[in-house]
Amino acid sequence: MDNNEVEKGKAHIIVEIIEYVSNSVVIKSIIKKTTGNITAVSFDTGEAMAEKSIPFDTFVQIIDGKAEIVIDGISNALQTGQSIIIPAHSSNIVKANERFKMISTVIKSGYE
Predict the structure, then answer these.
(1) Banded model confidence at residue 111, pLDDT cuts 50, 70, 90
(2) First-residue to last-residue Cα distance in the chain
(3) Which residues contact 68 (CB under 8 A, 6 or more apart)?
(4) Which of 18, 20, 80, 87 fits as disulfide partner to 40, beta carbons 3.0 to 4.6 Å?
């Protein structure tokens, strides 16, 4: 098992395994494989991920708080329980106008 991954074969409450850290974005791998990955991420208020674009769809679910996800210049406000799919090759920015936690899932296989 990768030491950065969550323990397999054990029940977890994802929102509890990642903490908020002042002035930071914290990333915890749930599963990381060559075919894709699942990560838990926490954002403190005012933090953001740099604008990026990846060649795969990304499923994002908010598990605590409220997030702003900008896809190709269009802002989407999401709150706990809501999710969005960021399309492959789309420019996107994830922002924390207030602190929040999310699960991000990228599946790299199946793209022809």
Answers:
(1) low
(2) 30
(3) 75, 76, 77, 78, 94, 95, 96, 97
(4) 18
Q: Which amino acid is at 39?
A: T
Would you tell me how many other CB atoms lie within 10 Å of the CB of residue 60? 21
Mean pLDDT of 35-51: 96
pTM: 0.90
Structurally, what CATH architecture does the domain formed by 14-107 represent?
Answer: Sandwich (2.60)
Q: Where are the domains of the chain?
A: 14-107
User: Hey, what's the torsion of the CAs at 22, 6, 56, 91, to 10 degrees?
Assistant: 0
Q: Any idea what the Cα angle at residue 111 is, between residues 67 and 69, rounded to 5°?
A: 10
- Amino acid symbol at 93: I
Residue found by looking up tokens 């749930």 in the block: 30
